[in-house]
Amino acid sequence: MYKKILVPLDGSERARKALSHAVELAAKLAAKITLMHVVPSLPPYVNTAVDRLGQAQQAIVEELMKNGQELLDQYISMFSGNNIAVDTFIVMGQPADEILEKARAENYDLIILGSRGLGEIKGYLMGSVSNRVSRHASCPVLIIR
Ligand SMILES: Nc1ncnc2c1ncn2[C@@H]1O[C@H](COP(=O)(O)OP(=O)(O)O)[C@@H](O)[C@H]1O
Ligand SMILES: [Mg+2]
């Protein structure tokens, strides 16, 4: 039933917990997992700034992408000892939009993510990414609290 599972990860404990659920499920269902990280776009004013800032921005973007890839690579260790097919995907953009687009364009049939992430705001059950993804996804969504 669920053969392609998308697991968006932001480095938070809740997302890691979501991944452990995904790994158990994928092992039972012989599903394939994609670990996805979205580097949030920089604020627009940075893009229109003078050249000097343009260069600094390029360096920051490269560093953020590298950091994101390292983050995803660390999770691969959770797959040792089973033979689940896993790959990683990293992109820059608005996290919820990128997750929704990836799931739709590549026909994922389940998204598993945390209810909250790295966000600071306390007191809400859901963060903005989990909220938007659950409302607009093209496939079922499993939200881990
Ligand atoms: N930049 C991101 N890249 C990939 N996944 C993300 C990203 N941000 C959030 N997520 C996913 O969405 C879940 C909920 O995070 P979010 O809605 O941002 O809550 P919060 O407001 O607490 O940060 C996370 O546990 C993670 O699974
Ligand atoms: Mg967040």
TrEMBL record:
Manganese among keywords: no
Pfam family, one: Usp
Keywords: Cytoplasm
Major site of localization recorded for this protein: cytoplasm
The protein's name in its UniProt record: Universal stress protein
GO cellular component, one term: cytoplasm
Residues in UspA domain copies: 1-145
Compartments, record wording: Cytoplasm
Family (UniProt): Belongs to the universal stress protein A family.
Top-level taxon of origin: Bacteria
